[in-house]
Amino acid sequence: MSTWTSVAEARKESAIGPDVEIRGWVRTRRDSKGGFSFIEVNDGSCFGSLQVVAPGELSNYESEIKRLGAGCSIVAIGRLAESPAKGQATEMQADEIRVLGWADGETYPLQKKRHSFEKLREWAHLRPRTNTFGAVMRVRDSISRSTHDFFHDEGFFYLNTPIITASDCEGAGEMFRVTTLDLDRLAASGKPVNHELDFFHRPAYLTVSGQLNAETYATALGRVYTFGPTFRAENSNTSRHLAEFWMVEPEAAFFDLSDNMALAERYLKRLLRDCLDRCDEDMQFFNQRIQPGILDQLTAVAEAPFRHMTYTDAIDVLEKADAKFEYPVSWGVDLQAEHERYLTEKYVDGPVILTDYPSTIKPFYMRLSDDEKTVAAMDVLVPGVGEIIGGSQREERLDVLTRRMDQAGLNQDDYWWYIDLRRYGTVPHAGFGLGLERVVQYVSGMANIRDVIPFPRTPGNAEF
Predict the structure, then answer these.
(1) Average pLDDT of the residues in 13-41
(2) What is the Cα–Cα distance from 226 to 224, expressed in whole angstroms?
(3) CB 3.0 to 4.6 Å from 52: which of 92, 181, 316, 393, for a disulfide?
(4) Three-state SS for 111?
């Protein structure tokens, strides 16, 4: 009886032996003049494919094997032998091949012709079968797995925070509304919204962050982290923005800004080391086809200490830079991607952690410095992407927090429970957020964030 194994396992020299079964999709088929065929089969378990040698003696050789093309699904049973071909340790000598599903070569989009990433977004249901997107998703999986491993090793508890919220964590107001009201009927009536008739009896939104909820549990469990979807209704079509994306947000009681920065550095280095160790073939592909030199860059980041710089020093560097920026820089402005990339790629040539941002450009919950001009904020910037982690020490002083909320125009009644955390046993605490898609971009070298999430959600696009 044959043993079902993955292509990843079947390609290892240690797997050589009889009666092995693999299941996957055909990448290519090449017929030999000697009366047999070479079929490349991939099942998504790894970057490479397994070569299956189909002899002409198979009962369905003429009727089915010679009709196989890209996209067909098959089961192949046979003996794994040492391969005489260069670049592969094993190949299968097939005793039986069953076709599970056909793919019409005339209409199947993923033929040998190379398609642009933009074109492949039109076939988001099929693009994971390509080399590039299979590699991207395996790297994404590695980063997700490492996230859970890292935080559990650091003593954090995994927390699920609400997707539906009545709070705007960032204060930006760019949130998706959640409602059960009949909007067509409401619009036709011309009347104002009666929130008492809505499901939650008040305005509700898709969350932009789980941070505020995470703080409540950090002040009880000590260390927690969230890992889930977040949403921004920002009408942006740039290569850096998604309407739906995934965030990793740790929150730790008794942490100050220096603890927070050290945690972020350890975390990011763990992600990189694990990807380099686990996803060798995928990373070699990115290095050769997507961003040459990325292996050396990531290895250097994983090994070298991160540079630190205050926002004020960064502004000074940018003002003196021999470069033309689309957005002018001066103290008090929010840094743009071009500024962040100059600092990491030209000035530091590696990751840099910026701290002590102006209070006027950061949210109300960040701890106000003694000068009352800056806050204990931090952003981790990396080459090629810019900001990859953003965080801060939180404001634990009740009087300062409420004053900052008033300055931001927030209604304290909406945040009564958050204020209570400062009223009952307040402690210094800190946390940060990492955008999963941005770190996948960084590790893979993919230029557009829409190509590192299974199904991108952007303005005007909610396909699939």
Answers:
(1) 95
(2) 7
(3) 92
(4) coil
Strand, coil or helix: 433:
strand
* C-alpha span between 434 and 208 (Å, rounded): 13
pLDDT in tens, 57-79: 999 999 999 999 999 999 999 99
Instruction: State the DSSP code for 201.
Output: S
Locate tokens 């107001």: which residue? 173
Q: What is the DSSP string of 410-436?
A: --GGGGHHHHHHHHSS---EEEEEEEH
What are the pLDDT digits (tens) for 104-134? 999 999 987 789 999 999 999 999 999 999 9
pLDDT of residue 169 exceeding 80, the answer is no
* pLDDT(171) > 60: no
Give yes or no for a contact between 22 and 73, defined as CB atoms under 8 angstroms apart.
no
Residue with tokens 């017929």: 31
Q: Which strands, in side-by-side order, build the sheet including 177-178?
A: 164-165, 204-206, 177-178
**Which of 362, 385, 165, 159 is CA-nearest to residue 272?**
385
d(CA 250, CA 261): 12
Q: What is the mean pLDDT of residues 440-444?
A: 96
Q: Which candidate, 293, 253, 291, 295, places its Cα nearest to that of 276?
A: 295
Query: Tokens 């002899």 label which residue?
Result: 55
Look at residue 294 and give its three-state secondary structure: helix
Decide: pTM greater than 0.85: yes
The answer to whether the CB of 70 falls within 8 A of the CB of 103 is yes
Q: Give CA–CA dist 419/356, Å, rounded.
A: 24
- The residues with which 101 forms a beta bridge, in sequence order, are 73
Collapsing DSSP to helix, strand or coil, 61 comes out as coil
Element (H, E) at 409: none
The contacts of residue 394 (CB under 8 Å, 6+ apart) are: 215, 365, 366, 367, 428, 429, 430, 431
